[in-house]
Amino acid sequence: MSKLSERIETYSSISDYKLMSKLPIVICINGANFSKATQLLDKPYCIKFAECMSSTMLQLCSFVEGVVFSYQHNDEIIVIARNDQHVDTGIWYNGNIQKICSIVSSATTMFFHLCSMAKSLNMSGDPIFTSQVFTVPNISEACNTIIYKQQQNFHTSIQSACLYNLLNNHDKNTIKDMLAGLNVDDKIHLLEQECGVKYGDYPLSFRRGVAAYKVPKIIDGVMKPKWSVNNELTIFTKDQNFLSNIMHSGSDIFRG
Length: 256
Known about the structure:
Radius of gyration: 21 Å
Number of domains: 1
Number of strands: 6
Number of helices: 9
Strand content: 15-25%
Low-confidence stretches: none
Mean pLDDT: 93
Distance between the termini: 62 Å
CATH topology: Alpha-Beta Plaits
Largest sheet: 6 strands, antiparallel
Strand order of the largest sheet: 4-1-3-2-5-6
Structural class: alpha+beta
Order of helices and strands: HEHHEEHEHHHHEEH
CATH superfamily: tRNA(His) guanylyltransferase (Thg1)
Helix content: 40-55%
């Protein structure tokens, strides 16, 4: 190897960070500048956009190696993958952070673009996704990551519902003052009193998010796990066994 190639390879290797193996992997994918890209869509909830995000999440489950669970809300998708099921199980792309982030961002952008084209989704410009990857210490913390994301969605969906409904009668500065200091219950009450809109009337997928995981199904007399999308999620803090069972076994229990 020449001195030049050796020097260039050194520059590259310095930033060649890798994930620790045998730990749950969390990949967070977000739409880049989606407040502008989705400005022509129905707000706060667009059925076509929700379907495209859900479809993109489902495709990622088959694309990313070792996925056991995925959760989607708004323009974010969180993927949980494992590589500790067997001593010989390897980590995807050898745990190379730059490779994982770049290929996941590219794949998500492609999956979403194809779906949005098929559904004639009126995006303002070309959708682009960014991604972040990290590990958590154990499966319990992987579950807590999803719980946190669902709680985050609960607050942002209420905020979004208030904002876009109040815009019919108020400007943004006035709305900002109206919402300042209000708790969740206050915002839900304000939404109903000011706009005649009940937060509970929005789809569960908007209020609680959407998940994808494997569900055992009987096919030709044989039980096989198949990827499935759940649009009617439970509140995870009230049913933590639901998440834990899937994270540990890789699929939900058989429910007849």
